[in-house]
Amino acid sequence: MKHIREFSKQSHSYDANTIVQKKVAKYLLSKIKSKPKKILDLGCGTGDINKKITWQYENFIGIDCAKGMCEKHPVSSNILVLNENFESESFQKKIQKFAPFDIVISSSALQWSDDIEELIKFTASLSKNIAFSIFTCNTFKDIYNVSGLKTFLPDAKELVTIIKKYFDINYEIKTYKVVFDDNMSIFRYIKKSGVSGGKKKLTVTQTKNLIRNYPHDYLEFEVLYVVSPSV
């Protein structure tokens, strides 16, 4: 997971620069009506999901590969935070001891997966219920169009096909737009939010040209919401 270093480095400013991620977490939780008691959060970050839960739960486990974010996550007698890669063999062996879960939640994290199908397949061994929000390939689409780079984010339709192999789901695709004062502010947002994932594919010259020539005062985001019907 190549984004680990970038997210860790930006953890001190992450909360203040994640406008869309916070909206996404809130909307994802609004889809959950069953008030699950035993919860696993893949890619828990600084605790957006945990902080927004309004019902009483018995146990909450959060997993994130960025140590700096784990250190900012709420902790208590019924909250366990693990600083690990959720695709690693060591984590998967460890988490099996806590299964089954009433639900596995993941907000704005699974797009970083190195092998999304293997991760979904493993998740099916932990719970029958999921609630996922995943940034998809139309996020930053104009930046990729202008730069000529190929997006590394997954395709929404392909994700739905994969997830349906292992779960009964309802899904929805939503788009978001964030407006900025100038192009420099746009790229500062990308850097400070960590949403670039640490994939530094542009040269300094290419970056300057993109900042100068980007035609909009906004960034667009596309998010796939996937939720089990029973939650």
Word description of this protein:
The structure is a single chain. By secondary structure, the chain is an alpha/beta fold. It has a domain at 4-136 and 154-176 and 222-226: Rossmann fold (3-Layer(aba) Sandwich). Helix content is 35%, strand content 20%. The protein has ten helices and seven strands. The protein has helices spanning 4-9, 19-30, 48-52, 67-70, 89-96, 116-123, 141-147, 156-164, 183-193, 204-213, and strands at 38-42, 59-64, 79-83, 103-107, 130-135, 170-179, 218-227. A seven-stranded mixed beta sheet has the order 3-2-1-4-5-7-6, with helices on both faces. It is globular, with a radius of gyration of 17 Å. It starts with a helix and ends with a strand. 33% of the residues are buried.
Features:
35% helix; seven-stranded mixed sheet; 231 residues; disordered N terminus
Q: Quote the distance from N terminus to C terminus.
A: 29 Å
Structural class: alpha/beta
Give helix and strand order, one letter per element, not per position.
HHEHEHEHEHEHHEHHE
Share of β-strand residues: 15-25%
What is the name of the CATH superfamily of the domain at 4-136 and 154-176 and 222-226? Vaccinia Virus protein VP39
Strand order of the largest sheet: 3-2-1-4-5-7-6
